[in-house]
Design a protein that fits this description.
This protein is α+β, with helices and mostly antiparallel strands and 217 residues long. The protein has one domain: Cytochrome P450 (Cytochrome p450, Orthogonal Bundle), CATH 1.10.630. It is built from eight helices and six strands. The chain is elongated. GO terms for molecular function: heme binding; iron ion binding; monooxygenase activity; oxidoreductase activity, acting on paired donors, with incorporation or reduction of molecular oxygen. Belongs to the cytochrome P450 family.
């Protein structure tokens, strides 16, 4: 079934990253104030479709921690990679993390051997997690966001996942702050990519009520 486990992984990954970024949470909260002022407190399709910063956060979270490892594709024409020619018809595997994080051309052009900030989220999350990259014209280029695939292989549950995650994020972020119970949880979970949801009863997150939350309806 589409949008099942991947929704759970995408939601947890986004929550866990946000829990380490209180300044980003504050920006989400401010955007929610504007949404309520324009559309009212009810969280309907119209309101969810007018949250550009929350959209950008979701994309950035999935860029860093995609909910799937990748997939198989068949080459439709010959391709030469690092001097090795692969003939048309070859079955290849693409790695979601390599596409979204490690491609220097796609992000900031850094081709040095040092780990650039947009990659090193485990040691420099504030530098790596930049939702603003999805708000500019460059991010609108075709295929700049490949987490859900592309073309005839596009995930059939993509729109459902996005709406479900945005709805749940909105419900939580209007009333609560997110905090990790164990500060280094994400570093340890990174070794389990892409399925980084901890087992029930282990490390998790705290929902800390805001002093002045926002209404849901």
């Amino acid at each position: 079934m589409a949008a099942g486990d991947t929704t759970r992984f995408a939601l947890f990954n986004t929550w866990a990253l946000l829990a380490q970024l209180p300044a980003i949470q504050d920006k989400v909260f401010e955007e929610q104030k504007k949404v309520i002022a324009e559309f009212g407190p009810e969280i309907d399709f119209r309101a969810l479709s007018n949250m550009p910063y929350l959209d950008a956060i979701f994309k950035e979270a999935l860029r860093i921690l995609p909910p799937t490892a990748g997939g198989f594709r068949k080459l439709t024409r010959d391709a030469t990679i690092s001097g090795v020619t692969l003939p048309a018809g070859t079955i290849v595997w693409y790695h979601a993390l390599l596409l979204q994080i490690l491609d220097p051309v796609l992000w900031d052009g850094d081709t040095s051997y040092d780990i650039p900030p947009y990659m090193d989220w485990k040691n420099n999350l504030e530098g790596a997690f930049q939702p603003e990259r999805w708000l500019g014209d460059e991010a609108k280029r075709p295929r700049s966001f490949y987490v859900f695939g592309w073309g005839s292989h596009l995930c059939v549950g993509m729109n459902l996942v996005q709406m479900e995650v945005k709805l749940l994020l909105t419900l939580v972020m209007r009333r609560f702050r997110l905090e990790l119970e164990v500060p280094d949880m994400m570093r340890r979970l990174a070794a389990q990519f892409p399925y980084v949801v901890p087992a029930k009863g282990t490390d998790g997150m705290r929902l800390v009520p805001r002093v002045q939350g926002l209404p849901w309806s």
